[in-house]
Specification:
Layout lengths: L10 H14 L10 H8 L3 H13 L3 E4 L3 E4 L13 E7 L4 H17 L2 E7 L4 H12 L4 E3 L8 H10 L4 E2 L20 H17 L3 E7 L5 H16 L7 E4 L3 H11 L6 E5 L2 H13 L9 E5 L3 H5 L5 E4 L2 H15 L14 E3 L6 H4 L4 H7 L3 E3 L10
Parallel strand pairs: 3-4, 3-5, 5-6, 7-8, 7-9, 9-10, 10-11, 12-13
Antiparallel strand pairs: 1-2, 11-12
Helix pairs in contact: 1-3, 2-3, 4-12, 7-8, 9-10
Length: 390
């Protein structure tokens, strides 16, 4: 029976954590079972095991010898870095596509900076996280990065940050813990607010008359608060009297109900979605009642995840460079490990990846670049997801 009961995207991380526990029971120089034997034992593919072992190798936990196998590393002989060069990465088991991409880019950023990134997983920020942080401290980490969290666990994370024996760098502003965020308080969330304002202006220029915002029911979500502020600013700036901000619960029923409510507004309707997930959910709900983008309505997502590329039709989506977040999370974590601070002080540029759901090709054609330039947006019109920079 497989050990894995979570998202396929998280398999290798869960396998990595299991192998990490196995390594702790062995001595330096001991040989691990083969990749295929481990795969058989853990109920996964050998490629998943290989990916986990590669991550452990990058962390200096194991040594892979061609033709011989994989061995437990000798911590002292591997030239382990000093404490400030070993950073913990606390991944949440419910991590979405955005969180997983940030984690991957953090690993790349750490390799470039020759920082040892030690990964642990949790499904909450309570006692389990305490134990993982204590283990990271024993392994020589000077601080910890939490790259993503479910918004309903914000208070739990804040409590963890306050009691943790290691400083924790977080991706959001937590009340009273602003120094732990990778961005300065005056900067945090500006880009997401600007994105919604720019999306509203963009749809107005395209000629849509009914412009709505759709997001989650998540009162703790500071990003949602910023985006709703951006929508309000857009409504006021353009003198629009029909305020249409819709917060929907998870599950298909709530979105299906909203689709029915929005249907009479087509084809004048354009929707600014909180993220790609909500945009794709809306596309699916509208399709159920015989409506599709961009013929009947338009929609823009945010984060430009793989879901945007593979939706039907491909989703137009705003995004900032994921590398920006990973870069500053690691920089600030390194500073925190020295009892210093290194928070980002400048907002990243905002991109619009134009695909099909916004209707730009039909309404503007070659004039699109000029419009984006007027709105201060950077254009991306390739068919793939954002490039991952080295």
């Amino acid at each position: 029976m497989s050990l894995i009961s979570s998202s396929p995207q998280l398999k290798y991380l869960m396998i990595k954590e299991h192998l990490d526990q196995l390594i702790q029971t062995l001595e330096s120089g001991d040989k691990l079972p083969s990749e295929r034997d481990l795969a058989s034992e853990l109920g996964c593919s050998f490629l998943t095991v290989r990916k986990a072992l590669n991550l452990l190798s990058q962390e200096g936990r194991v040594v892979k010898r061609t033709g011989s196998g994989t061995f437990v590393a000798d911590f002292d002989s591997t030239g382990a870095a000093s404490q400030q060069d070993r950073i913990g990465l606390l991944l949440h088991a419910k991590g979405d596509a955005y969180g997983l991409r940030i984690a991957g880019l953090l690993a790349e950023e750490a390799r470039q900076r020759e920082v040892h990134l030690i990964t642990k997983m949790v499904d909450h920020f309570g006692v389990q996280a305490d134990a993982q942080i204590k283990e990271l401290a024993r392994e020589g980490c000077g601080s910890v990065i939490v790259p993503w969290l479910p918004w309903d666990q914000s208070d739990e994370l804040a409590t963890l940050v306050r009691r943790s024996g290691l400083p924790i760098c977080v991706p959001v502003l937590l009340p009273g813990l602003e120094e732990n965020c990778f961005e300065r308080p005056t900067l945090f969330g500006q880009t997401t607010q600007q994105c919604v304002e720019a999306a509203g202006a963009y749809f107005t220029e395209l000629g849509y008359e009914q412009i709505a915002f759709v997001g989650p029911v998540s009162p703790e979500d500071t990003i949602l608060q910023r985006k709703m502020m951006g929508y309000t600013n857009f409504i006021c700036r353009f003198g629009i009297t029909d305020f249409r901000s819709h917060l929907v619960k998870s599950g298909s029923h709530a979105m299906d109900k909203l689709a029915t409510e929005l249907a009479p507004l087509c084809p004048k309707l354009a929707v600014i979605a909180y993220d790609d997930t909500h945009a794709v959910r809306l596309l699916t709900a509208m399709h159920k009642i015989g409506l599709s983008a961009p013929g009947d309505f338009a929609v823009l997502g945010y984060n430009d995840t793989d879901a945007a590329l593979h939706s039907d039709p491909p989703l137009s989506s705003f995004y900032t460079r994921y590398e920006y977040v990973a870069h500053w999370l690691l920089r600030h974590a390194l500073a925190l490990s020295k009892d210093e601070a290194d928070q980002s002080t400048q907002s990243p540029p905002l991109y619009l990846h134009v695909r099909q759901t916004c209707g730009a090709d039909k309404r503007l054609g070659p004039d699109l670049s000029a419009l984006l330039d007027r709105l201060g947006l950077l254009e991306s019109t390739s068919t793939s997801s954002p490039e991952v920079l080295s």
